[in-house]
Amino acid sequence: MRRPADDHEADDHAARAAAAWLESAPQSVAGQLALDEALLELAHEGLLAAPCVRTWMADGPAVVLGSSCRIDAEVDRAACAAAGVPILRRPSGGGTVVVGPGCLMWTVVVPHPAGAPPIEAIHAGMLGPLAAAVSTALAATGGPPRRVERRGTSDLVLTGDGTAAADERKVSGNALRVRRHGVLYHGTLLDACDLDLVARVLRHPPREPEYRAGRPHGAFLANLALGRAALDRAVRTAFNATAAAADWPRDRVERLVRDRYASADWTSRL
Description:
The protein has a single domain, classed as BirA Bifunctional Protein, domain 2. It is 37% helix and 23% strand. It has ten helices and eleven strands. Strand 1 (19-22), helix 2 and strand 2 form a beta-alpha-beta unit.
């Protein structure tokens, strides 16, 4: 008899063996968040044949709350209003982020017919390959030796030989949502993000990983400065997204936008 762990290993092998790269998507941030959840629905219902990988970048800045974040504990609403920055809420956990030009968003949705693996295995299986692929992209620039490594639960930081822990800068924050037969994992890759805007519209988070050591946003975040094409290649390499896909579940996305992601009640519920 096969052990449950063997089933999870088989699922992980399948995820690395072949994935679809989704090239089209809604244009709005609300639509993008809805698409992530719609793909997770398909995976959970057994309607997603293979892992789906995609990236997107918002045309303008927006604040995106984690599913259980309290707005006023993490966001300066007055600053958002003054800067014309909308506030939305995503389907996954984790902290609040600012998306927009220069912040590449990446998503992987994996069907797990035998049941989703343990949370730590999911974090490691997603962030390990991504850190390695982005590190390779950094090495290809020929600049000073730099690499990306995992820190905390689900962060990636920019570091290098001789870099003190206090000087490691976060370049990626990530979150997940798990259903019985599917996993949504998504996050940010800061490349040319307006870090001053982040400091203006976000409060210091109520919870922080130990390695942050109380640093304000400006002393904690950094940009990779690789360009979108290089980051897209890194994401595709990390998750072996070799097949092109153009279709996405429009009816599901429209429903989720209407019922959740464009709804003030959903965004302000906490």
